[in-house]
Amino acid sequence: MTRHLVFYGTFIHSLSLDQLEIIEDGLIVITPDGVISNLVKSISKELVRQHLATLGLSEPQYEVRFLDRGQFLIPGFVDTHNHAPQWAQRGLGQSMHILDWLEEVTFPNEARFRDPEYARRIYASCIDGFLQQGITTASYYGSMHAEATKILGDLCLEKGQRAFVGKCNMNRNAPDYYRDATVESSLSETQDCIAHMRRIDPEGKLIKYVLTPRFAITCEDALLAGLGEIVRSNPDLPIQTHFNEAEQEMLFTKTLFPTFNNEVDLYKNFGLLTKRSILAHCCYVSEYELEHLKKLECGIAHCPISNMTVGGGFMAAPVREFLRRDIKVGLGTDSGGGFSSSILDAMRQALVASNAREVTSQGKDKGLSIDEIFYLATLGGARVCYLEEKIGNLLVGKEFDALLIDSKSSKPGVMTILEEHDDTKTVFSKFIMTGDDRNIKQVFVRGRQVKV
Ligand code: GUN
Ligand code: FE
């Protein structure tokens, strides 16, 4: 993009968990570098060009796009937990318990990524698929293969998706054909992947390496300690792992690490809990763990679909409790554990799960509202990824990661969610609860249009 991009119309974003801002007749200016440089809240259409002139912009330095009624801009969705090699296995092994599902479905599938050509094909389709769904930022687990993980980083950069990309560290409790040979090889391949991501995107504009100990069950103490060492010398590295997901997993973890009473103490001991840690699931969290997660500023990837379909958590995580304590929370599709690659689906399932939680908590944990699930999918996810300064809403100074939503459709079979009498909040609510990727007309990351 060489010109400033300007939109005129309706914009909707979260300023905080309980503050949804709807801007009507708004004007937003995006620089050729993809940064939001100006946001005006209510301006008549006739004054747009005049206002741009006051900013020192005249045609052809900009392109203005006027949005129709029923169209609006929202921030891009952030998927805080996603397994790229599971793209082709979504929906398989539903209702299995976690360790059985890994052994029978997932490890045989992920082992295929030893073949770089296979990885290239599936990862290209995966990234296109997620961009199609409006996921402008994803925190990806790769497979255990360094080569395939580098390919995943290359493809995210090429296709313009903002991404954290990590090779899974796993040197035990996985089949011989699918595990790191030694602690040393696992760590040196990790260093190699870190160097690769820095080479392809030196400033980390889009792509960052994320340390990815799959979970403690697949990592010997020495491997966790080695990863902790890497964090100490690279404190800016994000970290992700699975955390307190299911009873089967928690019990096995205890037998492997008998000196630790809980997973907070375990991962903290190895230096893996920082303000950049993204902990997936957290279905069962004690008072002690809640206090420490807050103090350590860790973020939680709430995966409400896979929590109910794979893993044996089968549990509505205590999201209201996390929010009450201002622990950072975002949403994860966790596909393939979850069956859907849509954050809209994750938002709806988060709402459903929270209603179940309201009942089981005897009303203590109030269900989530539409505004709150939207926050989790956007600004909440940005906070979890420690990217709040850059993305998450449409404020001046942030990078333009955004979706153009169109609630009308002329295609047969595609729902039109706009009625004459609907106000903007109504159309927004209908989109969140009933829209799909066909209503996501355009997708932007750092100002670049990326939906294919
Ligand atoms: N725990 C370890 N690996 C995985 C995985 O791939 N998916 C889920 N849901 N949990 C895990
Ligand atoms: Fe997962």
Automatic annotation (TrEMBL):
One example GO MF annotation: zinc ion binding
One GO BP: guanine catabolic process
Cofactor(s) for this UniProt protein: Zn(2+)
Pathway: Purine metabolism; guanine degradation; xanthine from guanine: step 1/1
SUPFAM superfamilies: Metallo-dependent hydrolases (SSF51556)
Catalytic activity: guanine + H2O + H(+) = xanthine + NH4(+)
Annotated cofactor note: Binds 1 zinc ion per subunit.
Pfam families cross-referenced by the UniProt entry: Amidohydro_1 (PF01979)
Keywords noted in UniProt: Hydrolase, Metal-binding, Zinc
Assigned GO CC terms: cytosol
Ribosomal protein keyword on record: no
Limits of the Amidohydrolase-related domain: 72-450
Manganese found in the keyword field: no
EC number(s) given by UniProt: 3.5.4.3
Domain of life of the organism encoding this protein: Eukaryota
Function (record text): Catalyzes the hydrolytic deamination of guanine, producing xanthine and ammonia.
Homology family: Belongs to the metallo-dependent hydrolases superfamily. ATZ/TRZ family.
Protein name in the entry: Guanine deaminase
Species the sequence originates in: Xylaria multiplex
